[in-house]
Amino acid sequence: MEILIYRYNSICEPDIIQVFESFGITVYQEKMEMTDKQVSPSRQAAKITEWLLSHQFAFVFSVNFYPAISYTCNHFKIPYVCWSVDSPVAELFSNALKNEWNRIFLFDRAQYAFFHPYNPEHIFYLPLATNVRRWEKVLLEMTDEDYQKYGSDVAFVGSLYSEKSRYDRLLERNSLSAYAQGYVSGLIQAQLKVFGYNFLYDSLSEEVVQEIASADPSFYKGQDVFLDTDRYLVAHQYIGMKLANVERTTILSALSERFNVSLYTRSDTSALPHVHAKGGAGTLTEMPKIFQASKINLNITMRAIESGLSLRVWDVLGCGGFLLTNYQAEIPEYFEIGKDLEVYESTEDLIQKVDYYLHHDAERMEIALHGYEKTARYHTYEIRLAEMIRVLSGG
Fold this sequence. Notes:
Elements: E1 2-6, H1 13-22, E2 26-30, H2 32-35, H3 41-54, E3 59-63, H4 67-76, E4 80-83, E5 102-106, H5 109-115, E6 123-125, H6 132-139, H7 144-150, E7 154-157, H8 166-172, H9 178-192, H10 200-203, H11 206-215, H12 230-256, E8 261-264, E9 276-279, H13 287-293, E10 296-299, H14 311-318, E11 323-326, H15 331-334, E12 342-344, H16 347-358, H17 361-378, H18 381-392
Parallel strand pairs: 1-2, 1-3, 3-4, 4-5, 5-6, 7-8, 7-10, 8-9, 10-11, 11-12
Helix pairs in contact: 3-4, 7-13, 9-12, 11-12
């Protein structure tokens, strides 16, 4: 069997390619977007057409959804398989989502429930995974110096989204009315008090949606969509990013006033004077060492991921790290809270649990071991892609 993978340099792509090849599948790779992020849909379609005219592929695959590839595969009647690993993904609103030859896998069950009715025979739910074998190769070579360098009481690896906040750009240009600013501020403060349920999308007034959409000249306007995307984009890409910045900064500030907190990020950390800012961390080389050496690994899920488990959850557990994460509705489907990982449901709850587990080493390490064993047994890329192949082959 031969397949084509269209790549954009997602950190998931090497693992997926490795597993497909371990299944005996010959994988061809189209890499033009790895070096040129301005590739147009027409160029995508032209390049995929070249491949399809010269090979007999069982299917074309990509991480996340590309409408141009979907349309091209639909024309050739070749299955287009994609696995969503991010949220939000505005391209899912394209009319291409409805194409007959799509095989779309979504990792967030809430996202799946939203889009599934628009192409019920060809949209599926598939949670994310991790590559335990790859992490093991790094972890088995860790030295005492590595444990000293990367160890801390609490570690967080991730963006603060300060550099990605489109909403802040609007504020800097004084593009929004006092009413809109107050409305958004109140909405963010209300959402910060609620864990496990995202109400931003439903709570936005149409007046505020249109004001924000009109204020940004670069606001994304899909030309081929089956639903108006303005509300979705304002909720997730504008307010959602700002919320992530406020939430992460607030939580890390509160923790750092009481505990030894290491932050690995390329974001501006000037608002967090008590945090030990370590700069960015190499995904394949340093991140697994951080997860393994830190007593507590913190995960703060973007609210755009409404019910699902982000890649960070699987990776921390796959590295044998102790995970303390915000509650997500899908966690009990895969893990036993208090046995495989721990969750928090408010900032106060988080502070109490950090304090508890820093004083209960044996319990913390036992939970980390359980989480690792369950992840290694049930939640690897081999298992997920075998399930994908089963679905593609009709069960």
